[in-house]
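User: Structure tokens for this complex, please. No commentary.
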Amino acid sequence: MTAFRDFWFRPEEDSIYARLRVAFSLVSLLNLIALWPDRMAFFSAEGLFDQQMTDQQAGFPSFSIFRLIQSEPWLTLSFLLAASAMILLGLGIRPRWAALIVYLWHLSCLTTAPYAMAGWDLVLHTFGFLILISPLGRSWAWPHLLQPLPPKSVPRYGLLLMRAQVVVIYWQAILARGAAPYWFDGEFFSYYLLSHHSRFGGTWILEAGWLFWFTWLALLTEALVPILLWFQTTRWIAVCAGAALHLGIALFSVNLHIFSLTMIMTYTVFLRESDLLAARDWILRVLSRFQTS
Amino acid sequence: MHPALRWPIALFATGYSVILLFSVFPHRWPIRDHFQKVARPWEQLSGVRQDWGMFHSIPAEHRVRFRVVLDDGREFGPITPGLETWKRYRGRGFYAVNRLLDEREDLEQRDAWLEKIGAEVEVRGGKSFRLRIERDVIRDLFHSRRDQILTKERVTELGPFPATSS
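Assistant:
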């Protein structure tokens, strides 16, 4: 029994939690900024949704700060408070309290305006919860932001859950597509480029046979990245492939930038100090080769 | 960490991993649906739902315009408050209005929203309004490749609805 308990408490680098905390705060802040212009439409009493009806449909007591504050000044204040909590979390100042406020703010957004929330809101909320219950990382925290602290070990349970969460996000997304013909015959990307999300629509898409490869490559990347991230030898290949996929989505779309940043943020839970040092050494080697040639 | 916290955390982490294990399967798969009944209270309490069907269907529209058309011909956007127009780069407004208009989703929520539009129309001196939805629907690529026509326009009008404050 003790072995079962200790499985979750084997040591892991404190700095992984710290990097995730910083990355999560930055992306959450960007998401909040993106939501700012729509705060009245989504969360006020005069907005698109009837809160009482949303509560009835949920059929379960759920928390939302926006139930108490629905006028513009209070909504604005709540956004500013959440933004401050995100900054404090990133800086590592009172991080547990800051993480709690950020979690409750994301929960309120999902509870009050479920129809307006996108997949990345749910990813941020889920990671917000897992960060709240995990060690928060003493390194990269005020007042040691720029001075590295000696390496410290902390329990790994939070990282294990977050890594498993990344696998579930990608694999469920693939399985949900089932045998949808447009994914497996390679047409999905062409349809996507014709959609209102797309930046580069036009008749050129009809003649571009190579777009099939993008669809299949996206499927393959989504299937393999969550596995390759677990192994040190393939970790950077996975990070680069996943980042390329998501930056590609951001490039081709007018409104999915935060989705891309959110998914790239999740990769930080896999990156150990040794991975970062290996990447730094590789970059230095490449740069020195350029200088000598 | 206090040693007394270790067991509760280990048990919670194990429970959460079981939820994750079953959540690999998407909704509407029997194995997931059975498990969902057990996990539902937790998901509703925490808001942490395992629902990751991103891009599971192809986008249907190339362009969509939602317009509130008053009885006197004036036009406004559908976003309350203020009857603002939906901006393409702010994708959430599209999701929100599209789902409010989807008849399979939630008619009560839609009716409440239409009442709010009605109140705003009344303030602007209108007596009634219609909701006009102009969609450029993406055609099947098989047909588009033959005639080079990408989309087909589909216009839907809902209403008229009275302009009354509730």
